[in-house]
Amino acid sequence: RIQILFEISKMAATIMTLLIFLSVHLTNISAERSFKIDKEAGCFRKDGKCFQIISGSIHYYRVPPYYWADRLKKLKAAGFNTVQSYIPWNYHQPSKGTVDWTGNKDLWSFLQLCNDLGLMVLLRPGPFIASEYEFGGFPSWLPTLSSTISFRSSEKEYYGAVAEWFDYLLPKLKPYFYNLSSRGPVIAIQVENEYGSNPLCDKTYFNNLADMVQSTYKGSVMVYSVNGPGTRMLECGTSSEIYNTVDFGSGNNASKAFAQQARYNLGGKFPSMNTEFYPGWLSHWGSHFPNVPGTKVAGW
To answer: Which of 63, 67, 137, 262 is deepest in the core (most CB within 10 A)?
Structure first.
């Protein structure tokens, strides 16, 4: 009997040691997997090390799912470590009260594929996305809510519809956050899109939207804005509660643009970031094609 009790005691001690090891091991895994801004070093810190985001855009809604892996692998082979995409509201909610994530609209499979391929993701849910996309991503039923509706503003009907959409969408993105899950590639969420270029300049709207995203995620993901480097753009399209970035092309002075960005990120040393670098420009119907020499882009 004494021998049996001794063996049971040894077994219990072994199990306890194993549990302690697993607990410590899992804690270390959790601690190692993180993405944040280091305001002292002025860098993005991924898993404890400074990390440079090298990102390219692949919009899942513009590429058939059959080709997603091909396009993402080519992006990675070209030296990119991150992919960014918008989420068009009208693509997933073509009629009020119904939401579609099937077939070509399966964002979740796209995000899982990015993670499987070792690519980080910057997600841009809008609600306005621009993206040279129909109605800037707004659903066609939105104007029917009111004859006096005012888009991209704090007007009651518009903001109420946005809040309802975000109350549904934002929590669904959390399982794909890098900081929260081993299957999560998402390191950042963008608020609106170049709001500083909107003539309305409704700061109440933009600040409320930024607060909505921040309060939903409670620091579990980096939240950011993007605007051109002009003073008026940055005054209208930034919030002191989030990380504010700039966008510009090969014709701009990067040092001046990043100096402007720094003025709208106070309380520490923030990394400089251009979240939309323009190697060329869009073409308007009937106008001259804006050809930018490759040597100019490469030399920048």
So the answer is: 137
Distance, in Å, from the CA atom of 225 to the CA atom of 189, rounded to the nearest integer, reads 9
Strand order in the sheet with 274-278: 55-57, 82-86, 120-124, 186-190, 222-227, 243-249, 274-278
CA-CA distance, 82 to 96, in Å (whole number)? 33
| CB of 126 closer than 8 Å to CB of 170 | no
Cα four-point dihedral sign 268, 278, 188, 131: positive
User: Of 221, 210, 272, 214, nearest to 247 (Cα)?
Assistant: 272
Is 32 assigned a catalytic role? no
Supply angle C-alpha 55, 56, 62, rounded to 5: 145
Give tens-digit pLDDT for 107-156. 999 999 999 999 999 999 999 999 999 999 999 999 999 999 999 999 99
The order of strands in the sheet holding 49-51 is 35-38, 43-46, 49-51
| Residue-by-residue DSSP string for 90-119 | HHH-SSTT----SGGG-HHHHHHHHHHTT-
CA distance linking residue 1 with residue 12, whole number of Å: 16
- Residue 164 among the catalytic residues: no
Cβ–Cβ under 8 Å, residues 221 and 188 = yes
What ranges make up the beta strands (E) of 87-203?
A: 120-124, 186-190
Tokens read off for 78:
């070209």
Q: What is the tens place of the pLDDT at every residue in 227-254?
A: 999 999 999 999 999 999 999 998 899 9
Tell me which of 132, 157, 192, 194 is the catalytic residue: 194
Kind and range of the H or E element at 272? none
